[in-house]
Design goal:
This protein is α+β, with helices and mostly antiparallel strands and about 190 residues long. The chain is about 40% helix and about 15% strand. Strands 2-1-4-3 form a 4-stranded antiparallel beta sheet, with helices on both faces. Helix 1 packs antiparallel against helix 2.
Length: about 190
């Protein structure tokens, strides 16, 4: 039978399933491997293992498919892990740089030589920030309103570059800013963990 360009043979579909299973199990999405494994077992692949007869592609050997480090996917896996990295910060948003500098000085003076704690930062966020995240409380019923005042969690690419840099490259517990964005000026505290 002639196949159209988008159609694949049953053997090729099984091969692609094996590669997908290996990719999931090895390093990309370990939590998806259990969902893929039953399909592989139904095709006679023994729960994810590749029988020697399945690899009828000449130059590709079984070892190349079962290696835990398939060089082709290493870069992709690294990018996926980086994109999934999440930062949690508390921030205070104000309109002017001078407001931000004044608040930072007040916080530093109140803390003395000790670093500003998330609770102290939250008090200042609740009093001074114009961002809606300043209204968060730890005991709130709605998940969007639950947390420390000024707290935000996000992944790379979801905020402005300057804010993202402070969140992902700043030391946990270090007070940063003022940081200028299109919304105003931010003071940022990177929360540990």
């Amino acid at each position: 039978r002639n196949r159209s360009a988008g159609e694949s043979s049953p053997g090729m579909r099984v091969f692609l399933l094996v590669v997908a299973l290996h990719t999931c199990e090895s390093f990309l999405l370990p939590s998806l491997a259990p969902a893929v494994r039953p399909h592989a077992a139904a095709k006679g692949l023994g729960g994810g293992r590749i029988p020697g007869s399945m690899c009828g592609l000449g130059g590709i050997r079984r070892a190349a498919l079962s290696s835990p480090r398939m060089g082709l996917f290493d870069d992709l896996a690294s990018k996926v892990r980086g994109a999934m990295e999440e930062a949690t910060v508390q921030h205070i948003l104000v309109k002017t740089e001078s407001e931000a500098v004044t608040i930072r000085k007040e916080m530093s003076k109140a803390a003395g030589k000790a670093p500003v704690t998330p609770q102290q930062f939250g008090e200042y966020a609740a009093r001074h920030s114009t961002c809606g995240s300043a209204k968060k409380t730890p005991g709130a019923n709605m998940a969007q309103l639950r947390g420390l005042p000024g707290e935000m969690s996000f992944r790379r690419g979801q905020t402005e570059k300057a804010f993202e840099k402070a969140a992902f490259e700043g030391a946990p517990g270090a007070l940063q800013g003022p940081i200028k964005t299109q919304f105003g000026y931010h003071l940022v505290l990177v929360n540990p963990g």
